[in-house]
Amino acid sequence: MSPGATRADPEGPLPPIIAAMGEPAGGPLLEVRNLTVRYGKAIRALDDVDLTVAEGTATTVLGANGAGKTTLLRAITGLLGFHDGAVAGGSIALRGERIDGADPARIVRSGIAQVMEGRRVLGDLTIEENLLVGATTAPRRADLRARIAASYEMFPVLGDRRGDQAGLLSGGQQQMLAMARALMTEPTLLILDEPSLGLAPLIAEQIRDSIIALRDAGTTVLLVEQNAAMALSIADEAVVLRNGRVALAGPAAELAGNSSVHDMYLGTS
Ligand code: ATP
Fold it and tell me: Which of 56, 171, 198, 241 is 20 to 30 Å from the Cα of 211, by its Cα?
């Protein structure tokens, strides 16, 4: 499917929205084609899923519990094998190079960084030490100081507290640190898994603003969220999964503007 098209849910009717979309900002960076994933022999968690993330854009993957969002991320980052899962069909390519089936370390080296759900900063280390740890897999080490300085510019609170233990930061600040740490590798694609989870609404808004700033600064973002309103307010493009299939895909602004999308596909209103 072209990134400009929408796709009907084979299991139900489509709301009459989401017509033509504008051209994406850049060429395709990540291309997932006809992806089918199984856990064990019996569970088909993704079925014939397509997703295109254009360079320099933010794309969000939405869906209710169990829709397949985490499975899609595991497939992209090469982590399915740790969960008794495997790609059973289709392909995943980053800038035209197949990465499905590659080992996770190679996928990280190819330029994909993921901020895991739950943030997972190293609580006993200082903020600056967390950033340095994040840089250990960076392809280029020389401009480490410059990248740390850029992190503090993007997230001033991290600079103000650079010598503090990361475990003392608030949830929102830890999310900022997790994002800054992932950015230390200068990723081609930054994957964010539920960045607003467990955060107070005001803090979630700060995180949203940070993600928008990252995208505007040129980072390509793939965002998985259960908070559909927040995700759609950030993203350029959106894909809604339902029962492991693409139920809808189109410009985020158009999905956001249609309440039946929320009712029918996201379990919210
Ligand atoms: P949530 O938002 O609740 O995390 P999700 O959209 O991320 O949901 P997945 O976790 O990808 O959904 O789950 C998709 C389907 O695959 C579900 O039916 C789930 O039960 C199943 N599943 C996920 N992980 C495994 C596993 N390790 N073994 C077997 N089945 C799994």
Answer: 241
Per residue in 134-147, pLDDT tens? 777 665 666 888 88
Find all residues with CB under 8 Å of 97, minimum gap 6, and list them: 110
Phi, psi torsion values for 77, nearest 5 degrees: -90, 0
State whether residue 148 is helix, strand or coil: helix
- Distance CA(107)–CA(250), nearest Å, equals 27
DSSP string covering 41-106: TTEEEEEEEEEEEETT-EEEEE-STTSSHHHHHHHHHT-GGGGTEEEEEEEEEETTEE-TT--HHH
DSSP for 192-221, written as a single string: EESTTTT--HHHHHHHHHHHHHHHHTT-EE
Pocket lining for ligand 1, CB < 6 angstroms: 39, 43, 45, 63, 65-71, 83-85, 226
Q: Kind and range of the H or E element at 32?
A: strand 28-39
User: Could you report the per-residue pLDDT of 144-163, keeping only the tens digit for each?
Assistant: 888 899 899 989 999 999 99
Write the pLDDT tens digit of every residue in 204-247. 898 999 899 999 988 999 999 888 889 999 999 999 999 999 99
Mutate to test the pocket of ligand 1, among 36, 62, 71 (most ligand atoms within 8 A of CB): 71
Q: Dig out the tokens for 125 from the structure.
A: 């280390």
Token digits of residue 93 = 């390519």
Axis crossing angle, helix 127-134 with helix 171-183, rounded to the nearest 10: 30
> Which atom from ligand 1 is nearest to the alpha carbon of 241?
6
Q: Which atom of ligand 1 is nearest to the CA of 73?
A: 11
